[in-house]
Structures are given as structure tokens and as C-alpha cells.
User: What shape does this take?
Amino acid sequence: MARRAVNMFGAESERLPSSLPVRLLRWWIPGALCLIGIVLLVADNFDAFGVSAFGGFVGAGGSIWLANFLWRLGVSGDDERDREALDRAFLARHRRWPSAAESAYMAEHGHWPGEGPPPVSVRESG
Assistant: This one.
């Protein structure tokens, strides 16, 4: 369970970019919007405008963060589905489920231990 939580918040997938613009959109813009809302709330002495501004800015920042979080969660589900499909193909060939070490080897090298790398087709090499 702890490993799943780490993967959920990290960007360990090839499908999840982690460049500066993505990090800005993922963390800094929502954080800045929430901070602006808090500053406006305090600056207006918790009056009507400050409360409205706080709700709007924190709602906008929270929705951006939530959209990014749900997208990352969906992508991590795609990665898990792909890994399970590979494990099921191994099960069909070897009549047993691959061990954790075999699955890790497959993820790192692109082929199962003892099977050798897959042949490169003419289309892929040229």
C-alpha cells in the first residue's frame, strides 16, 4: 500500500512528463492561487470580499491540482494494466505467475530472463 501511494504522487512513468512547465502547472500554479486567496482573505480582515476571493482562488488552485492528480492516477493505472498484460503473457507461456524479480527484470530489460531480447524487425530498425 505504501508503494502505491509513492507511485501515485511521483512521476515515474514514461507517460508522465516532469519538465519545468509541467511542474509549474502541477504544483506551483495551484499553490500560488491558494496563497493569493489566503493573502486576500487576511488583507481584507476576513470580510465579505476576502472570503469570496479566498473561496474563488483556493477553489481554482484546488481544481487545477485535482485535475492533475486524477490524470496522473489514470496514467498510473494504464502502466499497471500494461505490466499485468505482460505478466499474463508470461503465465500463458510458462504456466506460472512471474516472480517479482522476473517482473523487475522485464521492466528494466524489455524481455524475460533467459529468453533473450526480442528480434528487431526491419520496420523498427530503419
About this structure: Residues 48-94 form the longest helix (47 residues). The chain has five helices and no strands. The two ends are 43 Å apart (CA to CA). Residues 21 and 98 are 38 Å apart (CA to CA).
